[in-house]
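Render this sequence as a predicted structure.
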Amino acid sequence: MSKYNEIMQTVYEAAGGRDGLLRLAGAWHARVLEDEVVSHAFSHGYHAQHTERLAAYWAEALGGPTTYSEQYGDETFVVRIHSGNGPHEEMDQRAIACFDQALEDVGLAREERLRRVLHDYFTWATTTTMSRYQHSADDVPDGLHIPKWSWHGQSDQREMTTLES
């Protein structure tokens, strides 16, 4: 049994907590800014604290503190930022590839179970919640909550029900 199964209970903890996710967010952001396709999403600028906010969002989704929801916004806010841009499958796949490379960059790919669950989470979030409202950000419903992700995948059925209705 790996140390992640014996000692750490959440994906957040296994990923190194706040500091680990901050390193991952920084590595991912650096990679996407260098990618000729994904960087387009940031070509109109981005928040000066994008990396910190992204790490806080991932932390909350992966079983950590609710800092993102308490300080920055809810899932509706995040999904609206990513909506209304039409289909972008190639960009999504390249963003996922950048994430996988960032996992390597910060040493989170060494433990296969952790690498897999982080990859699966990012892929799911990128290709579902962040891509669901391609036509308009106005289509995103109010009151969405950040979906939770565990070692077994998505664990917040309330969110799935809200998004599918």
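Summary. The first strand starts at residue 149 and ends at 150. The first helix runs from residue 3 to 6.
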